[in-house]
Amino acid sequence: MHVIATAGHVDSGKSTLVRALTGMEPDRWEEERRRGLTIDLGYAWTTLPSGRDVAFVDVPGHERFLGNMLAGIGPAPVVCFVVAADEGWQAQSGDHRDAVAALGIEYGVVVLSRADRALGQVAEVLARTRRELAGTGLANAPAVAVSAIEGTGLAELRTTLDDVLAAVPSPATTGRVRLWVDRSFTIKGSGTVVTGTLAAGTLSQGDRLELFGHDGSRSVVVRGLQSRDTSYSSLGPVNRVALNLRDVSAADVRRGDALLTADAWPVTAVLGIQRTSGVAYTDVPEQLMVHAGTAAVPARLRPFGPDHARLVLDRRLPLVLGDRLVLRDPGSRSVLGGAQVLDADPPALRRRGDGAHWAERLAGMDSGGDVLGEVARRGAVQEEHLRRLGLLPAQDGNAQDADAPAGVRVLGDWWVHAPAFEAWQRRLRTAVQALHERDPLAPGLSGGAARDLLELPHEGLLAPVVEGAGLEQEGGHIRLPGSAGDLGAVGLAVTELERRLTAGAFQAPEAGELAALGLGARELAAAERTGRLLRLRDGVVLLPTAPALAMRALAGLEQPFTTSQARQALGTTRRVAVPLLEYLDSRGWTRRLDAGHRTVVR
Fold it and tell me: How far apart are CA 221 and CA 458, in angstroms?
């Protein structure tokens, strides 16, 4: 299936031509038929001589309905540009030419209609049309003179359309879907139906999509699919499609809304754009109307030179790198020119100089985007977000992992700017070094404090930063390598305590003895982290070997044994025996049977 939009001045015979090619009436409204004036979009379809199916989107030519025209031509990849041979090039022809140029449409046919009324003028009108279309994608488009009333030239036109469509690149059938809605209505017994031109991706019955519209987003389900009055279980591009939707009323869907693959498209109200045609940005009004797909949104433009600008939309749209926009003057209704999205997620401009810095970066971008610049601006960004912005190819079943540019480190699904990664390492090592010098007994810098210090976007990035900085991480704390056993001046006191406990393994010092050695809670905790001491409840401090020595003594007792028998076997006091037995219970080495008895677990 292929989709062709018409273009051309009012009363150029576009609808008559579509009617002659398809045998269908494209004008949907009674008023249009009565007045002989197309007001809104019309639709018809036919099969060309090659067997190729083609649908036409017939657009209005009057300047008052230029917005409707842009909604019809926006999603279409091919255009049939009509000029009446008996009237020649008109002012509205120029508006439609400017729209074609703005959208970057490169495939189409020039049709000189009503040739039977201007036999001597066809060559002259064609020459003028060629001059006017120079510089657009239709500059070298084939031209056919026809008379829809007499039927002359129609066979040649069908053959020419076949040739043009054969040259159009095949669209992507996989990947994310973005269907711009051009109509919404209700069918009795079926419910809400929306229509649009499917330019890429595949739609299937039962698909759950995101409806992003004027009032936000919501989830909808495709109950049914039709194209050319025929039902299908799935449809690929390029196609005119009608979707029967569940979970939404027709009143909640409007032209300019979009049906999207869920969680696959970014939405934005701020864009960095590049001029592709038309008036220099320094010469256009600040307030504009922006057309994207079938949407028309008021916007404010801030120029950064003649060819680049920052565009702030009145509402968010699902737009990505490379999307084409039409800029229109809301006062004169004329097309000012075309734009291409270079940055779909530009930074906020908060400080003096931010605008100039961003404008310099924008001017250095091309239609392929600036992956390195985007990663550098953020420091770190997930690969999927780069895909959503259009900076990387959308992933499908056959997609390979994208290659990161020089200067970017790939850490899992995160792309990190190498200078940012190096700065994180330096900052972390400096902080850990300073903490150790200030407080050798500290367990190290906590992981939470490190993440806050570095302002990491995800906790999973901390481990590679720690490793890259040559640091150690254990128990949720980060420290200098080899610093785990460094107790500084406290080490002498711990050595003295070790000497005493070696002489009497279960003769735990009293609080006063510990204080006399200068061993408070922090010092003891540091010694325990280094593996030199074991702290039990109620302030009991022993050597780490004490539990094993206790088990030897307890295993020699008649089982089960009492607390008093254990105390006597260990040669210690109840103050030490009770916390030690509870520790052995917690390790599963002994088991408490009742209030007074325990047994060794063998």
Answer: 33
- Round to whole Å and give the CA distance between 400 and 387: 13
Say if residue 334 is exposed, middle or buried (CB neighbours under 10 Å; 0-12, 13-18, 19+): middle
Instruction: Please give the sequence-ordered ranges of beta strands (E in DSSP) within 279-365, or none if there are none.
Output: 287-292, 295-303, 308-317, 324-328, 335-343
Separation CA 66–CA 10 (nearest Å): 11
| Rounded alpha-carbon distances, angstroms, from residue 569 to 274, 355, 428, 579 | 87, 80, 51, 15
User: What pLDDT, in 10s, does the model give residues 95-113?
Assistant: 899 999 999 999 999 999 9
Task: Write a three-state SS string for 367-388.
Answer: CCCCHHHHHHHHCEEEHHHHHH
DSSP characters over 418-435 = HHHHHHHHHHHHHHHHHH
Q: Is 139:79 a contact under the CB 8 Å cutoff?
A: no
For 147, the token pair is: 């008379």
Given the structure tokens 């030519």, which residue do they identify?
A: 61
Q: pLDDT tens, 208-248?
A: 999 998 888 999 999 999 998 899 999 998 899 999 998 88
Stated pTM of the model: 0.72
The DSSP output letter for 560 is S
